[in-house]
Amino acid sequence: MAAGEQVSNIFDTILVLDFGSQYSHLITRRLREFNIYAEMLPCTQKISELGWTPKGVILSGGPYSVYAEDAPHVDHAIFDLNVPILGICYGMQELAWINGKQVGRGDKREYGPATLKVIDNSNPLFKGMNDSTVWMSHGDKLHGLPTGYKTIAVSDNSPYCGIVHETKAIYGIQFHPEVTHSTQGKTLLKNFAVELCHTKQNWTMENFIDTEINRIRNLVGPTAEVIGAVSGGVDSTVASKLMTEAIGDRFHAILVDNGVLRLNEAANVKKTLVEGLGINLDVVDASEEFLTKLKGVTDPEKKRKIIGNTFIHVFEREAEKIKPKDGKEIQFLLQGTLYPDVIESISFKGPSQTIKTHHNVGGLLENMKLKLIEPLRELFKDEVRHLGELLGIPHDLVWRHPFPGPGIAIRVLGEVTKEQVEIARKADNIYIEEIKKAGLYNQISQAFACLLPVKSVGVMGDQRTYDQVIALRAIETTDFMTADWFPFEHSFLKKVASRIVNEVDGVARVTYDITSKPPATVEWE
Ligand code: GLN
């Protein structure tokens, strides 16, 4: 991507340098809540290789001790940018280390709430704030003031809880303003960006649409074509709609029906995307191909691999068919990567950094010699949803629960056959329908039905039955890292169980999964 096309060159941007704290991404998150654009990069980022000029720099916290031999250190070129700098915890210790090395082990670790006492109320960093609760998480501390600094705030255990350079806008704070336990932390971050860095608060999804459409047009140029896979989920639909707005029918969307999609999914996606949103979409029915390859396979990892590889194969074949139609070359592959994936791949984890490349995308890029286009890579999930609403994508789709790539294949435990998929699909459809009817869909993060590979005895109409078991799952979570099961009313579960057993042939029994994550995962396979 050419430097001139970066979002950080278009919007005023705060650069967050990540030293590996578990809270680093929250700094970015909080600033964006104030319509301030912020981007996070690893602490090892060379400023000369940045390609854009930040309005301010924030140094995050981190697990290291600045005085340790292998501790990460910031590129000193940040001081030549002549923009305000804010060091948070490790970031503050780093500033002190650079200016006199007054950092060492504290007498005791400090973890949890403390009271911030502001000494200099007139300092713009504390505008609109008063003494408040802040969140501490450190074992090291400043043993004295760094050269050229003064104290502007204290706490009981930290005499240098807030410091500032005598003549430059360089700040350090011992606490974490980015976590919600710091009751006025958001205000402090906003003050830093707005009062000190004079960042424009123009990061809105309305502005993003305009700039992104221009950016896509410049990047793709007047003739090149773009191809992308849609899944029926929010990310790929939003990305596709954005591409369509930018380059019209030069964007080709493909939905591969792998035979393990939800009930009536392919037809529904076609209707919404083509008729509703004007997206140039081809639906490819490859269900027989997928199901044939899945025959006899019961191992979950094998199922995932088969589906991933078959997908690449089918997608490439379909892309070939599109080419001769207009005689032009497909040059780009659209991918709905979101900012949390980007953060995950760049976040500082010590000397070795792990980069995660999506299995499917990696393969396609290599085989098809395509360049990647990722219009959502700067956005958090809630920003994507907001964008979706603005682009006119139906509300139900924008707020849809996530659905795994291998689809119902990992919700049919054991061998995947057409008949088994049909049972799981119908049960799932009834379950989701009832959840929506009860007005619970938006309170639940993800819900689905699983078909278990066991048989159980039942009795229906005086006849003995010997049929399968459906397990229902519904979880609440904010980040999908940990999750708890949703506490349905008994009457709700009763209704769903009775409908599934009555309406879905082959099911004799329904159970509800009451395991949290961890120890269980969200999906069963
Ligand atoms: N590792 C440093 C300490 O223990 C910094 C901690 C942090 O940034 N949260 O003090």
TrEMBL record:
> Does ATP-binding show up as a keyword for this record?
yes
The question of whether Nucleotide-binding is a record keyword is answered with: yes
Molecular functions per Gene Ontology: ATP binding; GMP synthase activity
Name the keywords, alphabetized: ATP-binding, Glutamine amidotransferase, GMP biosynthesis, Ligase, Magnesium, Nucleotide-binding, Purine biosynthesis
GO cellular-component term (any): cytosol
This protein's pathway reads:
Purine metabolism; GMP biosynthesis; GMP from XMP (L-Gln route): step 1/1
Show the PROSITE patterns listed in the entry.
Answer: GATASE_TYPE_1, GMPS_ATP_PPASE
Main subcellular location of this protein, as a coarse class: cytoplasm
Pfam families for the chain? GATase, GMP_synt_C, NAD_synthase
InterPro entries, alphabetized: Class_I_gatase-like (IPR029062), GATASE (IPR017926), GMP_synth_C (IPR001674), GMP_synth_GATase (IPR004739), GMP_synthase (IPR022955), GMPS_ATP_PPase_dom (IPR025777), NAD/GMP_synthase (IPR022310), Rossmann-like_a/b/a_fold (IPR014729)
Domain (GMPS ATP-PPase): give its ranges: 203-400
Reaction(s) catalysed by this chain, per the record, are: XMP + L-glutamine + ATP + H2O = GMP + L-glutamate + AMP + diphosphate + 2 H(+)
Annotated ATP binding lies at S231, G232, G233, V234, D235, S236, T237
What EC number(s) are associated with this protein in UniProt? 6.3.5.2
Its cofactor is: Mg(2+)
State the function annotated in the UniProt record: Catalyzes the conversion of xanthine monophosphate (XMP) to GMP in the presence of glutamine and ATP through an adenyl-XMP intermediate.
HAMAP family for this protein: GMP_synthase
Q: How does it assemble?
A: Homodimer.
- Protein name, entry field: GMP synthase [glutamine-hydrolyzing]
Which species expresses this protein natively?
A: Saccharomyces cerevisiae x Saccharomyces kudriavzevii (strain VIN7)
